């Protein structure tokens, strides 16, 4: 059996590490980008921020998503190899909100 393709599903896989092995002391660095998206149509207390956050978090490669209805913006941390900013705008529009200006990228590095 090849370990390159694990036979189990829904399990995080780190190359060379079996699920029952410990990562104690290991540091994994992931290059991420922070994207700021202006969201229109949000109202304070209406639940729109939560709806937009959930929509963004469903995209593979989105690490974090936080929506501030007061400022009408979403701050999304993504893996740029998996997610394009246009996917973020499409996810926001799909749940009934608008995107008023192009996304801004702010590079960052995180350790999960």
Explained architecture:
The protein has 112 residues and is α+β, with helices and mostly antiparallel strands. It has a domain at 30-102: 2-Layer Sandwich (Alpha-Beta Plaits), CATH 3.30.70.100. Helices cover 18% and strands 29% of the residues. It has two helices and five strands. It has helices at residues 48-57, 85-94; strands at 30-40, 62-68, 73-78, 98-99, 104-110. Strands 1, 2, 3, 4 and 5 form a five-stranded antiparallel beta sheet that branches. The protein is globular, with a radius of gyration of 17 Å. Residues 5-17 have low confidence and may be disordered.
Low-confidence stretches: 5-17
Oligomer: single chain
Q: What name is given to the CATH topology of the domain at 30-102?
A: Alpha-Beta Plaits
Beta-strand percent range: 25-35%
Task: Please write the CATH class name of the domain at 30-102.
Answer: Alpha Beta
CATH architecture term of the domain at 30-102: 2-Layer Sandwich
What's the tally of helices? 2
Number of DSSP E strands: 5
Q: Give me the strand/helix succession.
A: EHEEHEE
Helix content class: 10-25%
Content-based structural category = alpha+beta
The biggest beta sheet is recorded as: 5 strands, antiparallel
Task: Give the overall shape, derived from the CA principal axes.
Answer: globular
How confident is the prediction overall: mean pLDDT? 78
End-to-end C-alpha gap: 29 Å
Rg computed from alpha carbons, rounded to a whole number of angstroms: 17 Å
């Amino acid at each position: 059996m090849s370990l390159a393709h694990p036979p189990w599903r829904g399990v995080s896989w780190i190359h060379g590490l079996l699920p029952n092995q410990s990562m104690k002391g290991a540091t994994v660095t992931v290059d991420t980008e922070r994207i700021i998206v202006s969201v229109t149509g949000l109202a304070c207390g209406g639940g729109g921020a939560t709806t937009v956050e959930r929509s963004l978090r469903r995209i593979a490669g989105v690490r974090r998503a936080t929506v501030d209805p007061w400022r009408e913006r979403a701050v999304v941390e993504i893996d740029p190899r998996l997610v394009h900013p246009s996917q973020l705008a499409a996810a926001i529009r799909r749940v009934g909100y608008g995107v008023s200006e192009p996304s801004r990228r702010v590079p960052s590095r995180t350790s999960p």
